[in-house]
Amino acid sequence: MNKRYSFGKYLIEKGIITMEDVINARILQIKNNRPFGELAKQKGLLTDDDILRILVIQEQVDDRFGEIAIKEKYLTREQVDDLLGEQSDSHLFFGEALVKIGAISEEEVIRQLKEYKDTLRKQNSPF
Q: Is the terminal CB of the chain with fewer CB neighbours within 10 Å at N or C?
C-alpha cells in the first residue's frame, strides 16, 4: 500500500461503498469546501485579479495563500485568521460527506477510519 492509498479506495476495496459513492461525496465536498480566495472574494476582500496574482505567486513559492496575501498586503493577519476560522467551521470531510449522501453510517465511518489508519501505520512500519 502506498501513501496515495485513499480512504475512499480502501472502502471500495472492502465493498463498503461504490465508486459512485466516492464521486458523489467528492462533488458534495467540492461544492461545500470553498477555496480561501473564493471566500475572501465573497466577503469583498479580494478581486478576481488579486486572487490570480496570489495564485501565480503561490506557484513560485512554498507558502499558503493567506500568508502570501498578507506579505503582498492584500489582507491583514486578522482578516486571514477570520477567513480561516470561517473556512474551517464549514469544512466537510470525506467521511462526513459519505454520511450526508447516505452511503454509510457515522458509526461505520468512525470504525472504518480507525481500521484504515491502523492499516496505513502497519504498512509504513519498519518492522
A: C
pLDDT in tens, 37-76: 999 999 999 999 999 999 999 999 989 999 999 999 999 9
Q: What is the chain's alpha carbon radius of gyration, rounded to the nearest angstrom?
A: 18
Three-state DSSP state, 55: helix
- Banded model confidence at residue 4, pLDDT cuts 50, 70, 90: low
Residues 79, 104 within the same domain: no
State whether 70 and 42 are in the same domain: yes
In this structure, are residues 10 and 113 in contact, taking their beta carbons and an 8 Å threshold?
A: no
CA distance 75 to 91: 22
Whether residue 51 contacts residue 41, with contact meaning beta carbons closer than 8 Å, is answered with yes
Whether residues 43 and 28 fall in one domain: no
